[in-house]
Fold this protein.
Amino acid sequence: MTSREGSALSWIQQMLQMRILETERLVLRQFCQDDLRDLTTWEEAPGERYTALQAQSLLDFCFQSYRKWGMGPWGMLLKKDRMMVGNCGFCRIDFKHNCGEVNYYVARQYRGQGLASEALKAVLEFGFEHIGLARIQARCGPDNVSSERVMQKAGMQFKRMISTETTKGGFRDEKLYAIARDQ
């Protein structure tokens, strides 16, 4: 790595330094190893909880992102019971086009309470105000009505259908939503 590349990476890491974000019902913060217990209570389907291995894998991904970029998924800590209920954050940032992409997840047993929309709004504000992004986008499967509703509640608008490559070499259609800084 050249010194110029190193200094650019350092600048990006400084700019992306995660802050604790707070909403009415949530504290968005970096995950820590102590969150493992909460993550093993997350359900994908009734009675199907994250295994300790799946939970640790998610934490390891987050820790690696924090070390490499200074940023990764925020854990969504529910204020009323101090439980980690999901995550939300930037999965991509394209500085050349000043555009970020967000994703979010709420454990099944906490869905339907507006927590994802609340977290997403805080992350959008952070992206526009602290990173200086001009546009932020997100995507979901064509039948994922609840995720689509989260994006709409956060002020994002449907832009178009896109086709993305899967890890298995196939393609899937997704709905692309976006919001610009001045909206």
